[in-house]
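Exercise 7.
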Amino acid sequence: MKTYSSKHRILLLNPWIYDFAAYDLWVQPLGLLKIAFACKNSGFDIDFINCLDRYDTELLSFLKKERPKNDDYGCGHFYKEEIEKPEILKDIPRKYFRYGFPVSLFRKKIKALKPPDLILVGSVMTYWYPGVFEMIRIAREYFKNTPIILGGIYATLCYEHAKKYSGADLVFKGSDINKLIRHITDSKCNVPTFPYPAYDLLTNKKALAIQTSQGCPFNCTYCASKTLAPTLKFRDPDDVVNEIFTCKSKFNTEHFAFYDDALLYNADKHIKPILEKLVAGDFKGWFHTPNGLHARFMDVELAMLMKKTGFNTIRLSLETTSCDFQKVTGGKVSNEQLINAIKSLKKAGFEPGQIDVYLLIGYLDQSIEDILKDITFVHKLGARAVLSAFSPIPTTVEWTNLKQAGLVWDKMDPLWHNNTIFLTRQNQFNINKIRKLRNFASGLNRKL
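Solution. The predicted structure, written as tokens, is:
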């Protein structure tokens, strides 16, 4: 593939979500926004179409609304259209949707653009690839000779599948933005390890995603973090604080959602200095942690700082109360560590309705009784149980275990990775049982 210089134009595309369910929990294409920042700083002209933009003026006009409906923290439902299920999913008794722009609106936007010299397409969940393929197919209609590069999580975890079926000219594997920029440019661009996302490309900036580190120190057997980001890296605390205050002053941002996989790790040298500087600067806003926090690193001092700086949504990761499962999957957390973390948060003034605990359902050999026990345990601690369905992820240890059990195979269609699909393929689960488990957890949560 040829290289490009600052006189060229790059089109960045964030695809739809194709799934049974999806919700905008501070969903933002940070990878594409970081690439946009690096390319803009190198002199490229940038166009950006974000099919998951709920604030797009043309989408709101289509819906005859002035603004999207949000919860108190800037989250809400995507526009969706029911579509035909792929053949693999025909037996699943749930409706299947395209979340995001109507296709007609995407066509209108891409048709109005100046011809790009290069197109970059992002990807997230492996089983959302139908939206990626559709976007590449339509982009080809309008720009037949323009090279298309596909990157992101799906492109990395299902590299061979993406190369064979996506229609992209190049599939980029990994998360090294510097490497990608060097690959497509004709000069040695000095891209920082943590380029600022080009937040200005977003229509709504009242709630923004932010990342203070990359990677994770643990090797959980069900997680692909080591494949996606092999090296654990931290941003300078001053750099993070500067970004937060800049967004606050420039965009009047009210909510920040941390995208870190290990936000609390090395707390004394990382997150605590960040929060101390925010307190010293009299920061006013709200912070959220949609990715599960490591309970083992929570202490009263950290909980107090989090309370002072406006943390409002606390989500801790437990996965299961099974001590055996905790040990064999990496030893990330113990029940005692979770108990101590919740005690620290409560001592700092957090209410039960602000403390959520992720529980994993559907992993190999887990029973319904195990899940009920986990939910009850969390409830008795005065926290809310959030059920997260297990999804088999290529490159992980659990993927190998599932292969040996005959439940997955190397060339299986990534649609089978969908957590809904995997749950229903196991004898002890079906849609009704899963719904009852969620209702049980919700019922206990409402009592807190």
